[in-house]
Hints:
- The chain folds into two domains: 2-139 and 303-316, 2-Layer Sandwich (Nucleotidyltransferase, domain 5); 151-298, ATPase, nucleotide binding domain (Nucleotidyltransferase, domain 5, 2-Layer Sandwich).
- It is 41% helix and 22% strand.
- It contains ten helices and 14 strands.
- It has helices at residues 50-80, 118-126, 135-146, 195-199, 201-211, 220-228, 232-256, 272-283, 288-291, 304-316, and strands spanning 2-9, 13-19, 27-32, 84-92, 95-97, 102-105, 130-134, 154-160, 164-170, 173-174, 189-190, 193-194, 260-264, 295-297.
- A hairpin with a 3-residue loop joins strand 1 (2-9) and strand 2 (13-19).
- Helix 7 packs across helix 8 (272-283).
- The longest helix has 31 residues, at 50-80.
- It is globular and about 55 Å long.
- The chain starts with a strand and ends with a helix.
Amino acid sequence: MDVVIGIDVGGTKIAAHLTDGSEKSIAQTSVPTPPDAHPSVITGLDEDSPGYAEAFKRGRMATMQAIIGVSRRLVVEARHQGMTLRGIGIGTAGQIDPMRGIVVDANPNIIGWRGTRIVDELTAAFGVPVFADNDVRTMAMAETAHGAGQGFESVLCITVGTGIGGAMVQGGKLIYGAHYSAGEIGYILAYGKSIEEVYAGPAIARAFAEEYQLHERITLVDISRRAISGDTAARQAIESAAYGLGQHLAPVLAFVDPDVTVVGGGVPSIGDIWWAPFLHPFTEFPLESVRGALIKPAALGSRAGMIGAGVLAAKKLGMA
């Protein structure tokens, strides 16, 4: 049986599975994104200092070692089951040149990631064809092929998690743009900052901690638990962020006008506390096409990234 490995690299974890190119996992594994790649490692460092450059190098190396590690486990499993590994697909945060397999640009969620030659390094490690793309694009491939976007001609996929990203699929094909940045909605500005810096999970947690002068480390998961337990301040923090994000994304739907918009990621998984205020600005928008837009939760959950990475590899290899 021919199989591929699909890998999803995020700011929180690296997840991978062994698959025949469908949404089904023959085997899967995951590890936390290495501490050396966390943005906190460069806090207080001058950009021109040797320590800053060294931190970037350590971050890149730690992330690649983690990716190779999860891949190796699945290679062993494929051999154990008598399967033939045909290739590897990888979806990762950042602006990816899929032709060369290089991280052209990246936000600080994974330190040192910019400039990484993902395809070359994985090809050298495993000796099989490797294909790389942006993680939101692989999520879009998964949702279009097997999830909430299945059966639609034009699909806009948006993820809200550690970061915020987008991808567009038209007629089953990803739209890249001239510089591979099509869909990079996380850079839309809100109050002088990117919407990622204001409405992504870590941003919500950071704003909540600052507002209430909390000295302990708090995450969005902690805040959502407080909100569900009846904490009014926690609920308002989530609702305010969700509504603000909806306000900034409604014009995107007017501009792109997709058949369906699929929204996934860790933040929407909070549930109705987030979804209700997020959807409200769309119903208030001047254009009827936006007020009546079909907006659906992603169907594949946290597995979408690695499923899409597997789909990417399988399609490139003619398996799907």
